[in-house]
Amino acid sequence: MTPVRVALLLAALCGVAAWQVTVIPVSLMQMTVGPVLAPGVIVGALSVFALLYGVSAWRGRQADESLEPDQSPLPGANGRMLSLLGGGVLFIALVIPLGFVIPGTLCGMGVARAFDAPLSLKSAAICAAIASTFWFVFAQLLGVGLGPALPFLF
Q1: 109 and 57 in one domain?
Q2: Residue 148: how many CB atoms within 10 A of its CB?
Q3: pTM above 0.85, yes or no
Q4: How many domains does one find in the chain?
Q5: Is the pLDDT of residue 24 over 90?
Q6: Tell me: the pLDDT tens digits for 87-104?
């Protein structure tokens, strides 16, 4: 697929995402930060990036990988994909019995492993910090129902 087609596909996806943001129901409570703000900001930022990519592709500054012969996946591609999918499956399977932070940490470690990060205490601590921060911001500050952070916190 050529870079210009990728840019058009990205623009179409951003259009669908923007439409989805407009159909989010308005909160019945008067809130400074409503349920549309975060998705709207994210879709807006992704749309800007898609536009910048499209301009770059139009100018010929993006590599057209379809022209390169005999491309094969890097060694270990299957293991990286399994790490990525495994982290997501662990999150889905464990979020209800174990709360949000532990499955979020395991999911983050699966994603990190998919990008060749070693499974170590350092990566576990970083993933736990990210999952905890995400839970705190969305569950505590914004009031999104993510459930408890840990199974023993009701």
Answers
A1: no
A2: 14
A3: no
A4: 2
A5: no
A6: 999 999 999 899 899 999
> Which residues form the domain of 104?
77-141
3-state secondary structure the chain: CCHHHHHHHHHHHHHHHHHHHHCCCCCCCCCCCCCCHHHHHHHHHHHHHHHHHHHHHHCCCCCCHHHCCCCCCCCCHHHHHHHHHHHHHHHHHHHHHHCCHHHHHHHHHHHHHHCCCCCCHHHHHHHHHHHHHHHHHHHHHCCCCCCCCCCCCC
What is the rounded CA–CA span in Å between residue 58 and residue 52?
10
Per-residue pLDDT averaged across 126-130, rounded? 96
**For residue 21, is it within any domain?**
yes
> pLDDT: is 27 or 51 the higher one?
51
User: Same structural domain for residues 60 and 7?
Assistant: yes
The reply to whether 93 and 62 lie within a common domain is: no
- The answer on 56 and 11 residing in a single domain is yes
Q: Which of 42, 67, 92 delimits the end of a domain? A: 67
Cα 119 from Cα 153, distance rounded (Å):
27
